[in-house]
Amino acid sequence: RNYYGGNWASFSFSGLLSWIKENQQKVDISEEREDWRKLILDNEEVLSLSKKDKTIQHVEDFCFGDQDSAEDVEEAGALPKLPVFGASGAEGVAQESEESEKECPPAESTLPEAESREPENATGTEPASAKEGNDTERTSESESSHSTALGESTLELGKTEAAPSEISAQEPKKITYSQIVREGRRFNIDLVSKLLYSRGLLIDLLIKSNVSRYAEFKNATRILAFREGKVEQVPCSRADVFNSRQLTMVEKRMLMKFLTFCLEYEQHPDEYQEYENSTFAQFLRTRKLTPSLQHFVLHSIAMVSETDCSTLEGLQATKKFLQCLGRYGNTPFLFPLYGQGEIPQCFCRMCAVFGGIYCLRHSVQCLVVDKESGRCKAIVDHFGQRISANYFIVEDSYLSENVCTNVCYRQISRAVLITDQSVLNTDAEQQVSILTVPPVDLGKPAVCVIELCSSTMTCMKDTYLVHLTCPSTKTAREDLEPVVQKLFNLNTEKETENEEQEKPRVLWAVYFNMRDSSGVEKNSYNGLPSNVYVCSGPDSALGNDCAVKQAETIFQEMFPTEEFCPPPPNPEDIIYDEDEIAPEESGFSNSPETKPESSAEESSSGTAVKREDNE
């Protein structure tokens, strides 16, 4: 591929259009050279790899506007950039330069004035940069008022609350397709839609490994529910519950009592043990909760299936949600600025700093296997050169059909929409929302909807980027279009019914199915050498725990005595003895005391490099 991250990537709008075209045409990944077979010895055999990416299917895109008017329109501001076609991201190497110290000009009107990126001059507007130990927390007053545990991390958080809109009832501006094309670089569109649990494994890993220095995050500001044909906000925290106008005083007490029980349910086994064989939905009916509270807990807090989730799984999911509240804001979730595709690139940067090499446009023809030992010895690339190694990590999509004959894959249905307004308009325009739409028919999966505003740096001003995800039962369009029709106006004609006029208008949409190989065991693959490790693509879950667990498991199998993603040494602490690096004698220290005082500024400059690439 010629972009970072595989199916975890983010694209500009023009990049996504190119990706769509590639997957609709299904061209070969690489051109094969005939002379590579002479590199294979007599005691070796070849394990061929797939020449086509079959992880994406049923790609359909739709423009709900005048597409012809955009034929001759090009993306504005095409600055000199990395040779990374389509991908949103920055280079996998952290570059130290004078430019990284300069303030990067923000995208035009994509952030409100309160989110100025000049921390030295602005007061109370800079992102929070909290460090382990007794380091000073650089938080604004409004941020610190609802962030209860920022001292636990080294994450950089974009400011949560946007300035209130002066005119909330104003009609949305009319956005044309040609404007979307022209502002295409403002978009960073994820192939996979996820959020980060504030106490999830990925957040812990980002902090521990210091990879968080390369990224910035924004709080998901609200949890929504779809009930009786309407979208409404769900109260999550104690303050939200007691400030809610949609709950009666009795319901508020009921909800707080139940949520308190969920936080410490292990200490009260007598209250749930007789329902262990029941579903969580059945258990909720026994807790004297009103139908609306049952709906909120099941679909918006636990976010589990009504038919397949056991009582214990539901209690665990609810507890996880509640434990993540308050660490960085009023919801449990964070979203990385510039899209989820930034995360793999951040790890690439850290890897590159310590000598790792990430090659784009560099395909592999085959694995070379020793006939006697059965171990993989080398790979042969499309240049016809042989590269030897002790371990090989292969993404599932690269394996040929011969290896995967016994593998049964699940599928994920995905849709990405560009809309002209939010599904729930409030005074604050800049909202990051998560909404679970329950299935119409029992047994069907619920649909997870994540709506991103322009201050997440994933879409242009006056638009919203909406991701829909669910486990597949049919094609993505068949699975998701009914939900899109419930929430949005797909009518391109000017005259529509009043009900449709109130809904956000879809400007552009794409549907596709993505392979979910996360549940496949290694022994399901045929004839795979013992030193070849398979990692899956993205799974359908909202969080990233599956990927982190998989990475750590593979690492520990290869290097059982090594620490997974240890805290990196500071470059200033590395001592070079002549031309040889002697890490044992270099006096590495990972304690907070040895961290230079300028670490916050270094974090800012690290993200500035990335922002400049994206700008």
From TrEMBL:
<dbReference type="InterPro" id="IPR018203">
    <property type="entry name" value="GDP_dissociation_inhibitor"/>
</dbReference>
<dbReference type="GO" id="GO:0005096">
    <property type="term" value="F:GTPase activator activity"/>
</dbReference>
<keyword id="KW-0963">Cytoplasm</keyword>
<dbReference type="GO" id="GO:0005968">
    <property type="term" value="C:Rab-protein geranylgeranyltransferase complex"/>
</dbReference>
<dbReference type="Pfam" id="PF22603">
    <property type="entry name" value="RAE1_2_domI_C"/>
</dbReference>
<dbReference type="GO" id="GO:0016740">
    <property type="term" value="F:transferase activity"/>
</dbReference>
<dbReference type="GO" id="GO:0005092">
    <property type="term" value="F:GDP-dissociation inhibitor activity"/>
</dbReference>
<feature type="region of interest" description="Disordered">
    <location>
        <begin position="90"/>
        <end position="170"/>
    </location>
</feature>
<feature type="compositionally biased region" description="Basic and acidic residues">
    <location>
        <begin position="132"/>
        <end position="144"/>
    </location>
</feature>
<dbReference type="GO" id="GO:0006886">
    <property type="term" value="P:intracellular protein transport"/>
</dbReference>
<dbReference type="InterPro" id="IPR036188">
    <property type="entry name" value="FAD/NAD-bd_sf"/>
</dbReference>
<dbReference type="InterPro" id="IPR001738">
    <property type="entry name" value="Rab_escort"/>
</dbReference>
<keyword id="KW-0808">Transferase</keyword>
<dbReference type="GO" id="GO:0007264">
    <property type="term" value="P:small GTPase-mediated signal transduction"/>
</dbReference>
<dbReference type="GO" id="GO:0005829">
    <property type="term" value="C:cytosol"/>
</dbReference>
<keyword id="KW-0343">GTPase activation</keyword>
<dbReference type="GO" id="GO:0016192">
    <property type="term" value="P:vesicle-mediated transport"/>
</dbReference>
<protein>
    <submittedName>
        <fullName>RAE2 geranylgeranyltransferase</fullName>
    </submittedName>
</protein>
<feature type="domain" description="RAE1/2">
    <location>
        <begin position="412"/>
        <end position="540"/>
    </location>
</feature>
<comment type="similarity">
    <text>Belongs to the Rab GDI family.</text>
</comment>
<dbReference type="GO" id="GO:0005634">
    <property type="term" value="C:nucleus"/>
</dbReference>
<feature type="compositionally biased region" description="Acidic residues">
    <location>
        <begin position="574"/>
        <end position="583"/>
    </location>
</feature>
<feature type="region of interest" description="Disordered">
    <location>
        <begin position="563"/>
        <end position="615"/>
    </location>
</feature>
<dbReference type="InterPro" id="IPR054420">
    <property type="entry name" value="RAE1_2_domI_C"/>
</dbReference>
